[in-house]
Amino acid sequence: MTTQSEVNRTEQQEDLLKSLIAFTKDHRATYWSGTLSEFLERVMTADPQGAARTSHQYMWDMIRWMGGEDEKGNFRCRLFDQELFGVDESIDRVVDYFKAAAAGSEVGRRLLLLLGPPSGGKSTLVILLKRGLEEYSHTEAGAIYGIQGCPVHESPLHLVPHSLRSRFRDTYGVDIKGEVCPHCRTRLENDYEGDFLRMPVERVFISEAGRVGIGTYAPHDPTTADLADLVGSVDLSKVAEYGDEGDPRAWSWSGAVYAASRGMLEMIEILKVKREFLYLLLTLTQEKNVKVSRFPLIYLDETILAHTNLAEFRKFLQESENEALLDRMVIIQVPYTLNYKDEARIYKKLISSAAAAFREVHLDPHVLHAAAVFAILTRLHDGEDKELEMGKKVRLYANEEVDGYAHAETARMRQRMPDEGLSGISPRFVINSLSNAIIQSNAKSITTMDALLALKDSIENDARIDPKRKRKWIDYLVLARKDFYNRWVKEDVHKALFVSFEQEAQDLLDKYLDEVEATLDNRHIKDPITNEERKPDERFLRAVEEKIHISDSGKQSFRQEVVRKAMGAYKRGEKFTLDSHAQLHNAVQQYLFEQRRDVLRLVSSTTRPDEEVRQKISVVEKRLVEEYGYDSHSAREALNYVTTLMAQE
Q: Locate the PrkA AAA domain: which residues (predicted)?
């Protein structure tokens, strides 16, 4: 017999296969090759703008191809949706950079530098852009062409002589920028006798692994770093073949700037490189050429995207001679997110890519959010109100409602403290702590308290953290537990317990309605058992209403509104239920929860509960598992924890 899990797995496999087929259809690339004459006749005529794109224009077209509109009608690039969370502002600035550069503004003559703390998303953002370029180049919209055999994959349009470029612009409506590289110039003269129309052209597919359109440079020991890593050097094995070190065919075109031509060059930890490297890169960005010995200027069209951390940047700022270099950079900060919900999504992503043993461990529904709250607290600056103010700031940054504060306060906080998010706990620290908790306990279920204790252990045993900061961060763990986890877990148990007493809740609602109607009509209520008349139970009414903060002065209007809704339901032939009035639903739920604390206390009691109570407890646990993301272990732990909290109140 086929189980439901097997059916689900089969459906997932079928959906994946359909997605793979759809992807190949959308990205089915047609290879093309021919002479420059054929290129001009077939390709250039069909799409002049696409064939003449610069690297910045190509990047911008890729971003737009990957883009769409969000629910507010704003442009959003889906390239980043599943990998980067909480850094929308930084992503928007990167997108704006490419939009402006593609339009031909001076921004395109500046090096783009991403600045931020470790594990903040800088590298991921660059990697996603690289993957986007590779994917886009395999689509018809992203078709890009280069001179066949050219070491820098340059545009075939560079072969058009300068004397004919004005007529070319008049014919096709595009400008030609750039010069033929020394290697292709030599081939043109030696192999094709100067007939540039016979030069071979082919469609190019961007590939980081194939060193086509994407180059990457990572710094190493400054004493041994050589510019050859960027611009190449003489290939001694070919000197004998061509007889001259100045022959471009005897040059090793293995430098990263050549691999990145027509696409993007990533410079990792750029401020760790020698100054001469920086000047070469900035000249390449501004003038689009590099100068190497024995050759004239080599034209290279590429986007340079660099990233570095705050420590290196601050050292760079201290040297006055670097001011000129800073003027040629567009610096975009990529801080840690300050929204704990986005931070939790980062953890979830990291866990999904972890080893199977880690993924198979059950985490209760608040583990990641509680850890995220703690991480956000370490990234904020202390307010005047200490704990209270910090807790409110965390909620405001998560776009939650906070009494006494409008949503606009979030923007004002960022303006007052622009450095928030540039320091504090990194996502890797949290994931490492969770990993240690799993490894040390061999547990298959981790609760929020387990996670907070694991973070505490990591802080106390980390020699890099000074004692004062350790104490502060442990206080933040306490704040995350008291102000956030306690509220969340009580709400879960509250809701699960409430459903167990649905009939009692409806009876309670009916009683409230009877008491309200008697109060408004100024009449007595007859006891159904003794037939004695009594006044409406004002104490009961206020006990319910105070659960949702109905003031004494506002009780009359609230009660009149409830009666109007009840009469409306009666006229429509409907029963007035808990779902008929959201506020009253919440009030009755909380009132009943308070009245049924004894049931929760029996969970951890040494005495054996009777069968009715045991059954109700079982229903609560089952609902926590089925509807709120717990497993049996964490559900029981949550019930015990809430029972302890209530005993302390």
A: 34-387
Task: Encode 415-426: b = buried (16+ Cβ within 10 Å), e = exposed.
Answer: eeeeebbbebbb
The arithmetic mean of pLDDT across residues 518-532, rounded, is: 80
- Per-position DSSP letters for 196-249, written without gaps between them: GGGSEEEEE--BTTTTBSEEEE----TTT--THHHH-EE-HHHHHHHS-TT-GG
Query: What own/partner pairs with CB < 8 Å and gap ≥ 24 does 536-542 have?
Result: 540/511, 540/512, 540/515, 541/512, 541/515, 541/516
For residues 422 and 412, what is the distance between their CA atoms, to the nearest angstrom?
17
**Closest-CA residue to 509 (of 424, 588, 594, 431):** 588
Residue among 329, 325, 277 at smallest CA distance from 307: 329
DSSP summary character for residue 41: I
Q: Which run of H or of E encompasses 181? A: none
CA–CA distance, 514 with 74 (Å, rounded to integer): 51
Q: Which residues of 481-517 are buried (b: 16+ CB within 10 A; e: fewer)?
A: bebbbbebbbebbbbbbbebbeeebeebbebbbebbb
Confidence of residue 24 (pLDDT cuts 50, 70, 90): low
The token pair at 233 is: 């050097």
> Cα separation of 548 and 544, whole Å?
8
Question: Looking at residue 4, what is its pLDDT?
Answer: 52
Which helix (DSSP H) or strand (DSSP E) does residue 333 occupy?
Answer: strand 329-333
pLDDT tens, 402-437? 766 777 777 777 777 878 888 899 999 999 998 888
Token pair, residue 123, equals 């590298």
The proportion of the chain whose per-residue pLDDT surpasses 70, expressed as a percent, equals 88
For residue 643, what are the CA distances in angstroms to 438, 542, 590? 26, 26, 16
pLDDT tens digit sequence for 273-290: 888 888 888 889 989 999
Contacts of 255 (CB under 8 A, 6+ apart): 215, 228, 229, 230, 231, 232
Residues 6 or more apart from 340 whose CB is under 8 A from it? 369, 372, 373, 375, 376, 394, 397, 398
